[in-house]
């Protein structure tokens, strides 16, 4: 069973409607669950703005960033571990065509391939991406990073890494503490962030072994901060 049902996907795509009549919190807090790996057990997630920067922050039970995929030596079938912030942003806000799916910021680690902008190497470190997610029942987690059909030339941001999916590779500062992961996004890049809604997810993704669409699937969901991907968090100025 996946938490990403058609209903929850619809909520994520129309976050303002889902939040009608719901008390809004700046941050999202979740109960610890011993059955979840401590590195992925979200306790709290928040997005705050200060001095022209939006800081995406997730606190886990312990050992943030310690769990990483094992290298396989090949791209096909390789794994990606991710701390993800689904948002109410539109894909047009991050440089793609409008209304393409759920826009999410992700801090990722994948030891088998590089996907930095303009050929930059990043397989040896945690780093940030913007991705656009679509529902796909072929994926165990119910979602995929949206594929770019062969032969098409869609609008893409300057830091698109050239992969045939809606992914962007801006060089955002990504840091880990004992139990915290943070990604810092300049508001000048995406002004709509100041009024966005968000959620928090920890997940594993996997490259299709056949390298066919869907190319990059959400393979498993460790935890969703809200429990239902309803985007109850609200970006707010830092206190």
Structure commentary:
The chain has 239 residues and is mostly beta strands. It is 5% helix and 35% strand. It contains two helices and 15 strands. It has helices at residues 6-13, 15-18, and strands at 27-29, 42-50, 53-60, 79-86, 102-109, 127-135, 143-145, 167-168, 173-176, 180-186, 197-198, 201-207, 216-224, 233-234, 236-237. The longest helix is centred in the first third of the chain and has 8 residues, at 6-13.
- Mean pLDDT equals 91
How many helices does DSSP assign?
2
Order of helices and strands: HHEEEEEEEEEEEEEEE
- Give the termini distance in whole angstroms: 39 Å
Return residue spans where pLDDT drops below 50 for at least 5 consecutive residues. 1-24
Task: Identify the overall geometry.
Answer: globular
Structural class: mainly beta
Largest sheet: 7 strands, antiparallel
Proportion in helices: under 10%
Number of spatially distinct domains: 1
Could you give the count of β-strands? 15
Portion in beta strands: 25-35%
* C-alpha-based Rg, rounded: 16 Å
């Amino acid at each position: 069973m996946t938490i990403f049902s058609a209903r929850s996907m619809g909520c994520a795509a129309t976050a303002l409607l889902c939040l009608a009549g719901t008390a809004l919190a700046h941050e999202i807090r979740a109960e610890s669950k011993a059955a979840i790996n401590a590195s992925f057990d979200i306790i709290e997630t928040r997005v705050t703005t200060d001095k022209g920067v939006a800081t995406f922050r997730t606190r886990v039970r312990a050992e943030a960033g310690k769990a990483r995929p094992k290298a396989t030596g090949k791209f096909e079938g390789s794994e990606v571990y991710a701390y993800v912030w689904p948002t109410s942003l539109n894909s047009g806000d991050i440089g793609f065509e409008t209304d393409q799916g759920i826009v999410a910021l992700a801090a990722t680690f994948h030891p088998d391939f590089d996907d930095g902008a303009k050929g930059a190497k990043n397989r040896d470190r945690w780093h940030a991406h913007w991705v656009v997610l679509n529902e796909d029942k072929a994926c165990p987690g119910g979602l995929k990073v949206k594929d770019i059909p062969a032969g098409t030339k869609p609008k893409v941001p300057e830091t698109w890494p050239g992969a045939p999916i809606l992914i962007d590779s801006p060089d955002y500062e990504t840091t880990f503490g004992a139990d915290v992961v943070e990604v810092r996004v300049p508001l000048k890049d995406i002004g709509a962030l100041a009024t966005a809604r968000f959620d928090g997810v920890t997940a594993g993704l996997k490259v299709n072994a056949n390298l066919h669409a869907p190319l990059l699937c959400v393979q498993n969901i460790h935890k969703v901060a809200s429990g239902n991907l309803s985007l109850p968090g609200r970006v707010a100025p830092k206190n």
